[in-house]
């Protein structure tokens, strides 16, 4: 079968790779119809991880069940399914609590497992014709048959639940306002989630005009940080501070001049969110960030403003999304027409064009908000 393989920094290619197959009785094999390139894939693409050459990438996968192992009963051949990016066993102490991003069995000794991702277990990704799905009965979310809402449902494997998780971690209640840093796919999904959850006002901060325009189209207030101090602007617009905040940027946060400054977003959120307010951090931070400038960052540490955070009595929630906690409910919102996360999709292409897709998306070229690959199509 064909799969998209990591070759080295800024280099991926479509190659013949070993066929996905049933390796355990609880496995399924899914024929991938749609799989997305994610901002998280770019951490590997840009060479910031220790992902091994030859790894098949892709953790945002959906498709049709092609084969099931003997112990698979709920999921059936022919089902249309979405696969959470986290691989979870369903029975360990964390999984039974719903903490599927921190499954103790899928990637022992580390924090959670995912398809096609550096240090998240030995699992191949789904930017390929087929994908092996461990513990398929637990992991696969069955979707309505057919092809309707394909671009909406494809957001269920990661970024729609992740955006939702950010708003949950911030503990936003209906009627509150919320500031979201980052108008990338995750930030825009957080904005969509906050609106569905009844935010009084959503503010989205970025410096990329095309992305801010999408935020405005959602009904959010766009804050362009290249045209003035975002903290000042937000403090003024919110009348003294926001109730809640979400970091959908992560450790690649940068100054306007492009210099990476990993703690800048966290510290601006601490300033902008009101005393006793909540902050949800879904942008990725890593113990060691080889890309960052600055002495502390070189040691893998952040100069986080803990003093102000403490003084204001704020709370913060962090981490990988426990996708399964949200994906069935979000699927139903899509089915009922109450959520339309597919608005993000800007480009669709066959797997053979994925290397070009990575290149454009990685350069954050104007209009390239979300790239969706269709391994089944050759057009
Ligand atoms: N927690 C999870 O489970 C999970 C899941 C998926 C993605 N992620 C992470 O979420 C983060 C965002 O993902 P994405 O796909 O939207 O990435 P992205 O890189 O496309 O978007 C990030 C956006 O942040 C903006 N930005 C940079 N510096 C900024 C600053 N100082 N202030 C405001 N905006 C700034 C950029 O212009 C960009 O538009 C990444 O770190 C990704 O790895 C986490
Ligand atoms: Zn992703
Ligand atoms: Zn588990």
TrEMBL record:
Cofactor dependence: Zn(2+)
Single GO MF annotation: zinc ion binding
InterPro entries in alphabetical order: ADH-like_C (IPR013149), ADH-like_N (IPR013154), ADH_Zn_CS (IPR002328), ER (IPR020843), GroES-like_sf (IPR011032), NAD(P)-bd_dom_sf (IPR036291)
Pfam families: ADH_N, ADH_zinc_N
Keywords: Metal-binding, NAD, Oxidoreductase, Zinc
Transmembrane stretches, start-end: none
Protein name: Aldehyde dehydrogenase
